Amino acid sequence: MSNFLIVLDIILLIIVLIIIGIWGWNKIQAKSLGGELTNEEFKKGMRKAQIIDLREKEPFKRKHIEGARNLPYTMLKYQYGELRSDLPVYLYSDSNTITLRAARFLKKKGFVSIHWLKGGFEAWDGRTKKSKY
Q1: Least buried of 1, 21, 49, 52, by fewest C-beta within 10 Å?
Q2: pTM
Q3: Phi then psi dihedrals of residue 114, to 5 deg
């Protein structure tokens, strides 16, 4: 029984180390991509940036950041050419994982200034709008 508990402890330790490793890798990747912005930083730069809502169409219709354009993550690889690579891109969604994936994708495609909203759309405290369509 004692050997079983030792093996179980080792397995649990490995799982914890993997989770910590993935978390650390995401933090390192986030810093190399441009970085997350607080609400205030996002608001300051949004007039000069392309604001992209990565959520699907229905959540975007219900409510989105004023001035944002809906480009669902599922369509990003087909429609990223509609974005200007010379302007900053401000991303947000409901999932930090999706936002980071989108940022990595845009970085690979030559975009230089990529930022995202810390905490995603739920953390936004600025002006919002409902779509008319």
Answers
A1: 1
A2: 0.77
A3: -125, 125
